[in-house]
Task: structure prediction
Amino acid sequence: MGIFLKKKNALLWTILIGIVVTIIFIVGPFKKDIWDINASKLEDSIDSISGPTIINDFSKWTPFEWDTLYSFTPYTAKENIYKVVGYKWDNISETVNENMNQIVFVKDGKVVCYLYGYPKNNNFSYDFGEYEGEYISFNSQQKLSFDITIGADGIKYFNYIND
Result:
């Protein structure tokens, strides 16, 4: 009878370990990264804008802390973005159209928010004006101001006000 209980306990432990490993493999890929979570929080914050307005301090609209904001021109290679940001992370994509956004927020050397894509998919568009290279950057101490308009398509257009 002792051998039967040992075999039964071993079988139960094997099943339990199998269940735990399966849960890790199923749930793991669905776990959101911090840059995705913060992008969703920022989109929620922006959703409250219902008409044309001016934002005088963009950092008050970002529901997370950041040190530097980078906006990259269309077609900037991933390797160049990694080099500028100083941090390599998964899920970065290269823009393939003039109208796409590619914005990275960094805090303490780590990416904390990543905005990417077509305005029609995100319902927002950021225009920082002319770039003197492949990117433009701002620190969180700067008062970023935007003139926000809402197009007939419902997209919120953030036009940087360069004082």
